[in-house]
Design a protein that fits this description.
By secondary structure, the protein is mostly helical. Helices cover about 55% and strands about 5% of the residues.
Length: about 210
């Protein structure tokens, strides 16, 4: 009887402290993980698909001197992916700051829509502009981008970290690290749209 009572007390303590993974369990839900992974996979497929079958002339075509080519768009996609992931990792290494959650004014869906909205233009920081990325060919950048995406998908599948209570401030406002993960995935779609705009230009080479 005493053994049983002791077991009940220990189990109760586990639940109260969160060690049983319930009341204080801040890990992501299966639905959240599935949604984030799907976004990573879908935007990867769309971005790489926008470059398939293009000749060098098509990859390098610019609609104007201040415009980016398809290849340059992809250079930016891959470089920004690494830049944002470094930011993500840095934020996750700092102590959780759940008190900042009150500063978040956007939903997950709004974060994705905001990043993908091409009607609002923004100047890319110098380090991630195409000319400064260090890439020299599409083949090289495709390999690098694939490696990044595979690592990010693997992370989301396996993580038990508390992404929701690590909150960061971006120029667009406060978001949590789960939303930052969505931001990273959605960013490539923003420039996939740009690549499609380049390809739709009347001066785009036929081959």
């Amino acid at each position: 009887m005493l053994k049983r009572r002791t077991g009940i007390i220990l189990l109760t303590l586990l639940f109260v402290t969160g060690l049983a993974g319930t009341l204080s369990d801040n890990t992501l839900s299966k639905a959240e993980k599935k949604s984030a992974i799907s976004l990573m996979k879908d935007t990867y497929k769309d971005a790489t698909g926008a470059t398939k079958g293009l000749s060098e002339a098509q990859l390098n075509y610019k609609a104007g001197p201040d415009k980016w080519s398809v290849k340059e768009c992809f250079f930016h996609i891959a470089a920004t992916e690494k830049f944002l992931w470094t930011m993500f990792e840095g934020a996750m290494k700092t102590p959780a700051n759940p008190e900042k959650r009150a500063e978040i004014k956007v939903t997950d869906e709004q974060v994705i829509n905001m990043v993908e909205d091409r009607s609002k233009k923004a100047q890319a920081p110098e380090p991630i502009q195409p000319k400064n990325t260090g890439y020299s060919s599409l083949a090289e950048v495709l390999i690098d981008f694939k490696t990044s995406r595979m690592n990010h998908i693997k992370y989301m599948k396996n993580t038990t970290e508390d992404l929701r209570n690590h909150v960061v401030k971006l120029p667009v406002g406060w978001i949590d690290c789960y939303q930052l993960y969505l931001f990273i995935a959605a960013h490539s779609n923003r420039h996939t749209q740009q690549m499609k705009e380049v390809k739709a230009n009347p001066g785009f080479p036929a081959k």
